Amino acid sequence: EKGGYDYFMLKEIAEQPKAVADTLLGRIDPAGSLTLDEVRISPSELREIDKVVIVACGTAFHAGLIAKYAIEHWTRIPCEVELASEFRYRDPILDVQSLVIAISQSGETMDTLMALRHAREQGSKVLAICNTNGSTIPRESDAVLYTHAGPEVAVASTKAFLTQLVACYLVALYLGQVRGTKWGDEIRDVVRELSRISVEVERVLRTMEPVRALARTLAAKNTVLFLGRHVGYPVALEGALKLKELAYMHAEGFAAGELKHGPIALIEEDLPVVVVVPSPRGRSVLHDKIVSNIQEIRARGARTIVIAEEGDEAVVPYADHLIRIPATPTLLQPLVATVPLQVFACELATARGNEVDQPRNLAKSVTVE
Ligand code: F6R
Fold this sequence. Notes:
Elements: H1 8-14, H2 16-24, H3 43-48, E1 51-56, H4 58-75, E2 79-83, H5 84-87, E3 98-104, H6 110-121, E4 125-130, H7 136-139, E5 143-146, H8 159-179, H9 184-205, H10 209-217, E6 223-228, H11 232-247, E7 250-255, E8 272-276, H12 284-299, E9 303-309, E10 321-325, H13 334-351
Parallel strand pairs: 1-2, 1-3, 3-4, 4-5, 6-7, 6-8, 8-9, 9-10
Helix pairs in contact: 2-8, 2-9, 4-8, 4-11, 8-9, 9-13, 10-13, 11-13
This protein binds fructose -6-phosphate.
């Protein structure tokens, strides 16, 4: 049932191009506009929304953090992202004009369920992004957009995460479309790129052998840091979470701009630091800033593991290890940048003799608060 792979996680990482394509299937019409039949919140209601609040846990929360960049950029609706476990305990400001998006692979996560119940009690509409048909979270929501990742067996979430991102982009683009936005042309371009993205994910998967080899050399390390900016920041958080869960290593993700406000004190000789570099095209100011960060940490002895777009030559002099990813529109980069981090964590766990599919102390579906 593992389809020839040693672990479900490896199988599920390999299934990502299909999972992404399946989640897009039938949702973009030939003219390039979005059809989301399962979103049973009417376009007129969606036009009334004045705030989006995303609630989720763990990896799904990281998908939500990325969604915020997309939703605010394409729709200009303010978007908050909150850990579901924190949400209802702080008396959040919600009303009928708030759209709450609950993201959950299992659809059974108690924290997320309690957060959405709280939102509905305040009169807010709830849209679930979920991978499990008929599970509790979509049943209790006003609308659902299913991710089509297929069953995810490994405890560490991989293909579900990529499909959550796709679903979030679809929601953001759809909201932009129904409300009308000055980014109409950009939305059309992104829809086109999104419909091609599974091919790029496939391409990344074919180049992962050096990432595995690198991971094996780090098996005796205690700490790995991850840096990113813009949508690369949640990607860094996700890379760190995967490493904690699977390799039981101390791993932390930081926004690269925060380095000088504290974390740079952690940098020491030979400390592995993974850096997710934004595209040199898109938001090029950020690209240049992160290149300076890489220089700074390398000057302090860090071993830099740089994830950068093909053709980005500026990073080459400062990368001890360079992992190439295909060029994508800035907001879509997490779909390709996360994959090497999943492979990295999986290989490190294996090298350390850990149980990849069933990490200690964790359960696939967390049905208690
Ligand atoms: C990470 C992981 C967890 C889940 C979290 C939410 O690899 O698996 O962090 O993402 O427990 O679970 P769902 O998405 O089922 O609500």
